[in-house]
Amino acid sequence: MSENFYVTTPIYYINGEPHLGHTYTTVLADTLARYHALAGERSFFLTGSDEHGEKALEVAAERQETPQQVADHYAKIFREVWDTLGIRYDRFIRTTDADHKAVVQSILQTVYDGGHIEFKEYEGLYCVGCERFLTDRDLEDGLCPDHERAPEKRSEANYFFKMGKQFAWLSEFIETNPDFIRPDRYRNEVLSMLKEESGLGGDLCISRPKTRLDWGIELPFDEGYVCYVWFDALINYLTGIGYPDDPDFPALWASAEHLIGKDILKPHAIFWPCMLRAIGLEPYRHLNVHGYWNVDSRKISKSLGNRISPLDMNEKYGFESFRYYLLRDMSFGIDSNFTEESLVTRINSDLANNLGNLVSRTLNMVKRFAEGNVPEPGPIGDLEREVMEVAGRLPEAVDREMRATRCHRALETIFGLVDAANRYLERREPWKVAKQEGGEESVRTTLYTCCEALRITAILLSPFLPLTAAEILERIGQSGELESAQLPQSAQWGGIQVGAATQKGDPLFPRIDLETIGESGA
Ligand code: MSP
Predict the structure, then answer these.
(1) What is the percentage of the chain residues whose pLDDT exceeds 70?
(2) End-to-end CA distance of the chain
(3) Which of 125, 173, 341, 454 has the most CB atoms lying inside 10 A of its own CB?
(4) pLDDT single digits (tens) 180-215
(5) Is 403 exposed, middle or buried (0-12, 13-18, 19+ CB in 10 A)?
(6) Cβ proximity of 473 and 460 under 8 Å
(7) How far is CA 349 from the centre of its chain?
(8) What is the structure's pLDDT at 306?
(9) How high is the pLDDT of residue 148?
(10) What distance in angstroms lies between residue 476's CA and the mean position of ligand 1's atoms?
(11) Are 520 and 316 in contact (CB under 8 A)?
């Protein structure tokens, strides 16, 4: 039986349009899902929208609409944006979907019946931005540091999930499964959060009285309350793959990989494993936590007006170039700084000068010296062997990085072959050899080697840059290749079809002039 790969993004709040931050996580999930499918696994990619909670009510008040209208409006926009950008999710889940509501209610009942919920009076500081109670330690100068606003003091009778009694188990689980939460820095952060929270008892308020908030899923055991938005939202990861009855559920769940930004570490690393245990399910396989994108060294915020739109980027640079930049420039787990200058520099150096150049030089020469067809190679020498060795190491090296969610390193590795092929061309100088007596065979070998390096590059690049990869394969006459490709076999040396007709085409990535980009703004 083939392996499974289940990847999720956070489900996004319906309080604005997708920006750079959402786009990053979504592109990352798309790339991983495509990679695992290419590796022959059954992959399932879930994304969606988080529609309940007070934030939705705030937006509804601003827009003078009902929360349902707001939810419909933004859920549609998110979907349309991902569709426009070629994001290939398997399901777009909305927390207002009927199946999700039913699953949340049945889970609430199970957890309640299991004795994990109690009813009591509570007073605390609530941040609507985070949609959760904060502790004094979370605050900076009395304000929520993420939302720069003071939390409200709230006191009311509510239902609490007794998650604190699971902290000992959870700490031990995290200690003994070192890559459960990765990279390491977040695992350590969670372990110290758990120590701190243990002292506070660790109860999680999971209800809101309808008198204050009636936009949510009703508690099955008390119609006066709705379910707290995070409790409802996390369960999307189960509903999305057909919990509890779908026959595929167990296998997919056992392979669950959550992708999140560091802002929502606590709900995913603490609430969620405790909830799963109370439900009677195993924890997810990995929590993969990425850092934050800043824009021109500042936090992304509505008020600063620096919420880079993926549609603008698509229009200005082409989505594949933007996608490449996001995946290549962020070291997984660490914050990154978005500037248009670094974006353009990255496109020019890697895509235009390096990859694009290899494609156009190779195909120009195939046209000039081999009638436009992939040539039959002659005997090979040390220089060919060097390129073959670099290519030979790629599938395993890329696989290792992808299984650790390090796309930036996987791309760096793949571009090692592009570099090697460009260097090889410089050393073989087929444009000179072609003029020498009897040089034809050497030229054919050189061009075959470059075409084959391009084929392997394109296959390995296809999860990252699906359109570019397809275009390269088409130009080197191997257009059907991606449909049946499977790693690692398809990336092994020697798979190119000799004699296939190639097409030169326009430059894949025209160089962008840095001077002109500032004018239109992002
Ligand atoms: N609705 C919750 C998630 C519930 S999941 C069960 C939520 N939504 S959100 O719309 O605020 O999206 C948060 C996610 O968007 C982050 O975890 C991250 O994936 C992405 N990003 C939002 N801003 C970001 C940056 N500036 N940089 C990188 N990613 C960030 O939280």
Answers:
(1) 98
(2) 47
(3) 454
(4) 999 999 999 999 999 987 766 788 999 999 998 899
(5) middle
(6) no
(7) 24
(8) 87
(9) 87
(10) 40
(11) yes
Supply the residue whose CA is at minimum distance from atom 8 of ligand 1.
12
Angstrom distance (rounded) from CA 186 to CA 485: 36
The tokens describing 337, both together, are 């700084």
Average pLDDT value over all residues in the chain? 95
The whole-angstrom separation of Cα 200 and Cα 227 is 22
Pocket test for ligand 1, best of 12, 96, 132 (most atoms within 8 A of CB): 12
Residue identified by tokens 């060294």 is 297
Cβ pair 62, 15 in contact under 8 A: no
Q: What is the pLDDT of residue 132?
A: 82
pLDDT above 70: residue 520: no
Strand order in the sheet with 218-219: 207-209, 222-227, 218-219
352-392 per-position pLDDT tens digit: 999 999 999 999 999 999 999 999 999 999 999 999 999 99
DSSP 8-class letter at 140: B
**Top mutation candidate among 20, 24, 289 for ligand 1, by most atoms within 8 Å of CB:** 24
Ligand 1 centroid to residue 49 C-alpha, Å: 11
Q: For ligand 1, what atom is nearest to the CA of residue 259?
A: 19
Residue 1: pLDDT band with limits 50, 70, 90:
very low
Question: Other C-beta atoms within 10 Å of 175: how many?
Answer: 11
Instruction: Give the catalytic positions in this structure.
Output: 19, 22, 127, 130, 144, 147, 299, 302
Contacts of 62 (CB under 8 A, 6+ apart): none
Secondary structure class of 64 (helix, strand, coil): coil
Provide residues with CB under 6 Å of ligand 1.
10-13, 21-22, 24-25, 50, 233-234, 236, 260-261, 263-264, 292-293, 300
Cβ burial, residue 423 (10 Å; 0-12/13-18/19+): middle
Residue 522 is predicted with a pLDDT of 41
